[in-house]
From TrEMBL:
Residues 119-252 form the Cytochrome oxidase subunit II copper A binding domain. Residues 1-22 form the signal peptide. It is an enzyme of class 7 (translocase). It comes from Actinomadura syzygii. Belongs to the cytochrome c oxidase subunit 2 family. It is found in: Membrane. It comes from the Bacteria. One of its GO terms (biological process) is ATP synthesis coupled electron transport. Subunits I and II form the functional core of the enzyme complex. Electrons originating in cytochrome c are transferred via heme a and Cu(A) to the binuclear center formed by heme a3 and Cu(B). This is cytochrome-c oxidase.
Length: 263
């Protein structure tokens, strides 16, 4: 009877732990990735959870085993295992192997996500300011010098005024996109949850990263660093389109720039 109650209690604890982790399907709480790099981060996240569940299962199994089969039945001292060299080596080696494996996969995937190329297909200078975003699309001329091809400027939030339309960063699918981050004032953070990636936007320093989107659609982005009174309204959208649609966007933007304006 006691064993049955103990098993029921253990099952209830497992269910409580599962619900507390906010697991949502196979992605375990993460949004569906829209880039090659995001998929790699998702796989690392899933692998970490598998390792955590495996270690947790072993630990809980040992605890339940000890509770069920090593309850006090007499005043005799149970067998002691102090100075048992094989067990102490096991205690040391197993955690070391687990940490080494996790470190290897983390370092491998971090290098993949942070890798940059020599000639990305699209380069966007992203400037964060209180409290909106500016997107400058750069392309190289015949001499190899960068020039402005398109510009999207978000409207800052007016005091006590309605929220302006979100600026939209448009990029093509299947192309390497380099994002260079700048700030005109304080520290911001560029975050698109669907990319499963965020990076600080710091004054006086240019952060950069690259990604390759593989799903079209419109995805929400925001500043993830508390940057002032209207931080929560510092929003934007990432619009992923086909290469043909992106080429049309750039052509229309060049025409707008030639007319003396920006989107």
């Amino acid at each position: 009877m006691r064993s049955r109650r103990a098993l029921k209690s253990a099952g209830a604890l497992v269910l409580l732990a599962s619900s507390a982790t906010a697991c949502s399907g196979s992605r375990l709480g993460l949004p569906e990735p829209i880039s090659v790099q995001g998929e790699r981060m998702l796989h690392l996240w899933q692998g970490s959870w598998i390792a955590a569940f495996a270690v947790g299962g072993v630990v809980w199994g040992l605890i339940i085993w000890a509770v069920l089969f090593h309850r006090k039945r007499s005043n005799d001292l149970p067998p002691q295992v102090r100075y048992n060299m094989p067990i102490e080596i096991l205690y040391t080696a197993v955690p070391f192997v687990i940490i080494a494996v996790l470190f290897y996969f983390t370092a491998r995937d971090e290098n993949f996500v942070e890798k940059t190329t020599d000639n990305p297909a699209v380069t966007v200078d992203v400037t964060g300011f209180q409290w909106s975003w500016q997107f400058d699309y750069k392309e190289k001329d015949a001499a190899g010098q960068e020039k402005l091809a398109a510009r999207v400027v978000g409207q800052p939030v007016a005091p006590n005024g309605p929220a302006p339309a979100k600026p939209v960063m448009t990029i093509p699918t299947g192309k390497t996109v380099r994002v260079r981050l700048h700030s005109n004032d304080v520290i911001h953070s560029f975050w698109v949850p669907a990319l499963i990636y965020k990076k600080d936007v710091m004054p006086g320093y240019t952060n950069e990263f690259e990604f390759t989107a593989n799903k079209t659609g419109v995805y929400e982005g925001r500043c993830a660093e508390l940057c002032g009174v209207d931080h929560s309204r510092m929003l934007f959208q990432l619009k992923v389109v086909t290469p043909d649609q992106y080429a049309k966007f750039i052509a229309d933007s060049k025409a707008a720039l030639a007319a003396g304006g920006a989107q």
